[in-house]
Amino acid sequence: MCQLLGMNCNTPTDILFSFEGFHRRGGLTDHHADGWGIAFFEGRGVRLFIDDKPSSDSPVAGLVRRYPIKSKNVIAHIRKATQGEIRLENCHPFVRELWGQYWIFAHNGDLKDFQPAQGQHYQPVGSTDSERAFCHILEQLRLRWNTPPDSAQLFDEMTRLAAQIRPHGTFNFMLSNGEWLIAHCATHLHTIVRQAPFNTAHLVDDDVSIDFSTVTTPRDRVAVIATQPLTDNENWSALAPGELVLFRDGAALYTSHPAS
Amino acid sequence: MCQLLGMNCNTPTDILFSFEGFHRRGGLTDHHADGWGIAFFEGRGVRLFIDDKPSSDSPVAGLVRRYPIKSKNVIAHIRKATQGEIRLENCHPFVRELWGQYWIFAHNGDLKDFQPAQGQHYQPVGSTDSERAFCHILEQLRLRWNTPPDSAQLFDEMTRLAAQIRPHGTFNFMLSNGEWLIAHCATHLHTIVRQAPFNTAHLVDDDVSIDFSTVTTPRDRVAVIATQPLTDNENWSALAPGELVLFRDGAALYTSHPAS
Lengths: 260, 260
Hints:
The first copy, chain A, is of the alpha+beta class.
């Protein structure tokens, strides 16, 4: 299975600490060695780093580990290929433009028999079920609205689309347009919101700690979402299967009722 | 003015030597210090590195200088902002998907009063004339064809579109879908095709030489296109104003008659 990591904040924040543990799961402490990727929003722009090499020995991951890119929305992915060859075009996150915004998407899981009709606006470049699902979601949103709806309308439509795709398999995903980050749990997704008073956190995957009180202001709020908890001394919450959450400014703004 | 660099090859080739000279023009040997970017095709996938810092002191440029990414099509750009703030979303190259292929685009120049109608399929994310032109080109291609035309048809249409946009200002650009690279000269664009017998080349911007015969096979062919020649001991050809060239497998496949 792949691993997902997302971050949504109310102030641009670097993800170095979380990425330090996360990237080690790409071939070092876990078996996710078929490529990786990370996308950072900076304003309306996106920095996308993808690699078809394991993240634990990728030169690009080395850069990301050392380079404190500050972002309000980040999505990272470590790939264990289930569908689609190990090729650059099959690495997540994927990026497309919708309504003059970049949208980024990453998926953990496996969708079977998911072959939506070819879109008028969006087509996959690679051969993964994940990119097909992303293009299908964007196509449906674009067909429904010519201009961006408000976030409540969008969340309702995303709830509907997630429910439509969910029966095809395992569909943990994260999606962001730089303003909000949507996370959908099919099997495993955990979240934590860090805010004042900040404490020291310690990684599961490496003997590294950080005292967040030394690198934050009292107003900062950061939501981190990951397949498995990244720290072993904080209280992560598990999302329920079928639950969809829209994070904005480091907090859950909308939560769907989990599918029964 | 900005600087453009493109490479089109018949075998995946690294661009380290050309980029070594080129990146120094971003704030060190020349005045192009408002960001930079480079996009590499690898198969159908694209690696895009962009930065709103000068390329001469960008950590991302440091990675690219040390990392021999092999690609058949590369476009790089160093930005001197004329329209659009110095922000990540205004850095070239820009990427979009068309017909299930990624397309990359970079522009050197300045288009005045170029405000095409909002597209159904493509909208700019940033505020540059360049991204507007790119989205307009893709929109026109997408409206005309639902599936990719052959390269001769595409070249004719690109000749028409370049002529339509050219009167708005200075429109040197490069465009690639990973199979071919199209270069359009408005003012300054120079090209060289390197093939056997390979010789030693020496950079203009730095005292660095390379003996290409030691890093190539006799069948390799590499076209390099740049705003200004990058080496001082080779015969670069200047494209004529209004000339459009489609490079494939390291050679010019189609050339338009320059605009009179």
